[in-house]
Specification:
By secondary structure, this protein is an alpha+beta fold. It has a domain at 36-162. Helix content is 30%, strand content 32%. It contains one helix and eight strands. It has one helix at residues 9-63, and strands spanning 66-68, 74-78, 83-90, 93-100, 103-111, 116-125, 128-137, 150-155. Strands 1-2-3-4-5 form a five-stranded antiparallel β-sheet, covered by helices on one side. The longest helix has 55 residues, at 9-63. The chain is rod-shaped and about 105 Å long.
Amino acid sequence: MNRRRGTTLIEVIVALTAGSVILGVAAAMLCLLLRTQSVSRDHVHQGTVLSRLSEQFRHDVLAATAVDGREANSWEFTMTPERTVSYRAESETLVREETADGEPTRQQRFSLPPGTAPSIESEGSPSATIVSLIVAPAADDRQRPAARIARFDARLGGDHRFRGPRQPPQAPAEPSSEDPND
């Protein structure tokens, strides 16, 4: 009798099942990698934005002579009598606006992490005031998992390079040619 070698139906089903499992695991891994990449990209972007915000906020506080936070979610730093910088909280955004002689000259928007809200606090004596920008979970969003909290501190008016026109350096006093014994 002559038998032909071939595959049985059971062998084909086993091979298709194994291939399906491998393809399913590969698809799940690809989805997981894409999701991880997206979350990582968002995390890096938020870190970059907070870093830029920190640098700009500290620069503004160091250059300011006074801070006014009487309005809710709005703070104004006086740089010179003609120049001010204000920070205004909007929905998941902090808006920084420079004004000179009452006219807006520059505006920046910093996107904050989802579910967070900014606040600015000042403490200390008038001669050594520390101003803090705090990014914390929004008050109405307490049921979400704890968000990352950022706090940036700077001393108000700590940088005197920005106050008024620059004074030319004074020449050193010349030694007297008079003889003290005369």
